[in-house]
Amino acid sequence: MATKGERTREHILGEASRLIQRKGIGATSVGEILAASGVHKGSLYFHFQDKEEIGREVIRQAADRFLRFVDWSLAGATPRDALENFFAAALAYHRGTGFTGGCLFGNTALETSDADPGMAALVDEVFVAWIDRIARVIAAGQRAGEFRDDMTALDLAQQVVAALEGGIMLSRLRKKAAPLDSCIENLKIFLRSVVPAHGGRTKPRQGGKYAPHRSTRSETGNR
What we know:
68% of the residues lie in helices and 0% in strands. It is an all-alpha fold. The chain has 2 domains: 1-48, Orthogonal Bundle (Arc Repressor Mutant, subunit A), CATH 1.10.10; 59-220, Tetracycline Repressor, domain 2 (Orthogonal Bundle). The radius of gyration is 20 Å and the shape is elongated.
């Protein structure tokens, strides 16, 4: 059972996370975190050295949640099914938020990549881990003849993540599903738009549900 101090710390982080998701790290003040959490300044500084430490911990916790979400949703009867299930889950998540907040990691990358190398490196770990998971599913789909194989799985995965980030941004801007939905449908076409050089599709692997090998933190460079 969590102690009172641990509960207070997590409460502060939860409120800070909601503010940072909407406003960004730089625009979120300590005063706003104090007001949202209802804790005294002394209590906040007992748990955290400064706002930057709060921001880093928000990113770490969000990364753990997000990669669990990816692992949960990136599964299906075939690699194509697995990727399309992930796409559907991502769209459902952002629809559920009313397309507010966007992607915390994309937002923070744009905000900090030129000004805060340490935070930027932390966010980059998330993208490395995310791309790695997508690449392994695409590689399995290439072997099964489900996805184009004129590009490497890693290059395709980077295109997938970059396109999704753009779709999320436009849906946030316009507060509607259409941009992200269109992005996802075009990604499906893009991934299968070239006939594999080895002679066309092969039958998907039969049997149990497909799920990619889960990366360890050492494999992905994640914490």
